[in-house]
Design goal:
By secondary structure, this protein is an alpha+beta fold. The protein has 2 domains: 38 residues, N-terminal domain of TfIIb, CATH 2.20.25; 98 residues, K homology (KH) domain (GMP Synthetase, Chain A, domain 3). The strands form 2 sheets. It has a 3-stranded antiparallel sheet, with no helix packed on it. Strands 4-5-6 form a 3-stranded mixed sheet, covered by helices on one side. Helix 1 packs across helix 2. The chain is elongated. 20% of the residues are buried.
Length: 138
Amino acid sequence: MKARVKWIDGVAMLGESASGHGVVMDGPPDLGGRNVGVRPMEMLLLGMGGCTQFDVLLILRKARQEVTDCVVELEAERAESDPKVFTRIHAHFIVTGKGLDPKRVEKAIQLSAEKYCSASIMLGATATVTHDFELREA
């Protein structure tokens, strides 16, 4: 896997993936940013959310669960001093579907957290990563 990050202006950057997609990242105004994109640490958190959601949806699809919507709400805390790594991350899944089995949803989240989600497992080296979920009927 390859990626490229090009400096634009101030502290704004354009991240480009090998798959041909781009995303603008920027810093806060007090550090020279213009607030035109997400912060790099926000991008890490979003990446974890996308990674774990991808796993959970794939596992539930294989388990023949009829999911109609899935949202992962992420909340993180960072260390007070440099390097300001994540110290705590909580992922709250809101899974909507028809007749969802709570045990299968719980198992899918557990498998993602412990076996499949590279981002969660990597970030778990410095942060306590927790998960919970709620089910909604479609």
